[in-house]
Amino acid sequence: MIDEMIDRADAFSTRWKAVISAVSVAWFAATCADYAGFIKLPVELPLSEWLGFVPVVVWNALWWGFAYPRIEARRAERGTREGAL
Prior knowledge:
Low-confidence stretches: none
Structural class: mainly alpha
Number of helices: 3
Order of helices and strands: HHH
Strand content: under 5%
Radius of gyration: 17 Å
Number of strands: 0
Number of domains: 1
């Protein structure tokens, strides 16, 4: 079940790599700038202050700490298996 989810996440992230990267960078930059007081995001946006900062941290922890290492391991495993055949 986990392997299937990892394969789906890999396919999705490969297909939408540029969009995911741009949204992630913009979200992180906007919430950091709002939290530091450089800009003030509208209250209606769910990105203001802690409501924006905490999901960014959670997203990065899940992606870099859990999903990405497993995706890379699966890619290496598939590459090794395909190369041996």
